[in-house]
Amino acid sequence: MENTAPNNNPLERRLNLSVPVDALKSATDERLKRMSRNVKMPGFRPGKVPFSIVRQQHGAEAYGEALNEALSSAFGEAVSSQKLNVAGYPRIEPKAETENSATALEFSAIFEVYPEFTPGDLSVAEVERPTLEVTDAEVNKTIDILRQQRVRYHVVDRGAAEDDRVVIDFLGKKDGEPFQGGQANDYPFVLGKKMMLSDFEAAVKGLKAGESKTFNLTFPEDYFSRDMAGQTVEFAITVKQVMVPTLPEIDAEFARSMGVADGDVSKMRAEIEGNLKREVKKRIEAKVKDQVMDALLAANPIPVPNALIEMEVQRLMQEARQNLEQRGMKAQNIPIQPEWFAERAKRRVSLGLIFAEVVKVEQLQAKPEQVKALVEEAAETYEDPSEVVKWYYANPDDLANVEAVATENNVVAWALERAKVTDKAVVFEDLMGQQGQQATV
User: How far apart are CA 125 and CA 293, in angstroms?
Assistant: First the structure.
């Protein structure tokens, strides 16, 4: 018999399972007989231990195995006959004794099923697709960034100016007393990079090495430290070093540092342009995909099996522990809590279920030519693309990941055909995420 469990979970089901006592006893005895062939005991040859002793020592183990197998078989037959799509694992609970207890053991199997639904309408969904053409201007900006990453500084005897790297000592006081986080020695930063508050940087500008200054500073109302937000303090600073930046020239040496063996600057620019186009394409696709995911979730407010969410939470927790350990931290010393991952796990499980249904209903499985195209695209950035392609096709797990991406792309394309899509030009820096760091003091 099937009925919804009483906790208002629309996906939860309950099945009554019955295990005949005689059949359970026979299965237990059969297991004990097989065990007796290999049981070893002092004073007896292997396989010659009396059956009564085997039963005494291993009866509970054999009974448990026989019962588990009987319940598994009964559960499988029940869900198959009722065509139930089980999510996760059932919870088996024994029932109270009844008048039939002498001949059969009664159990309840409590479990969840996958939700049944028809993919929702996406015609009202709105997707804003970023557009950006990679031109010489974007290539030049990227080269400038690469030059800045290789900047060198040398000491100068003049007042600090924009883009200079300074090393200072500073001490902040509130009401005449030092405050937490307001003191440092030999602290380096680059003026104009917004590593420090603008008023703090303004006070440093113009000072030479060896010069000091005392000034008042009022922290912004939205400062990240609530204790200091809106407070006025006094800072005393001493400049210890002023260094001017020197960027590398765009020449053969710079090209070789970028991996171009012959130092050909035009070849370097072509490689940077190709890499940049791939990265821009990838970032645009990611932003569109995120919007499609949100649209699919909004159009399909389905119930999600708790069992699957719990399994995903455990997977995310394990992933977090591994990441911590890779960074040299001991995961066991950090109290990772399941609730940290609950919302993320629910979103991922929901999307997985929606994706699977859309793929099934709309026949959006990845085609071999789509998988091949993705593999070849990934191989383009390697020295020998053909070897990379061979490697993918020789590794089923990695190829399966590519197939999953191809299928995902099919779902995104299917969704975009139905949603209201508008193109919007974006700024290169915004798309690439080249934002300044948050100021500290």
Answer: 11
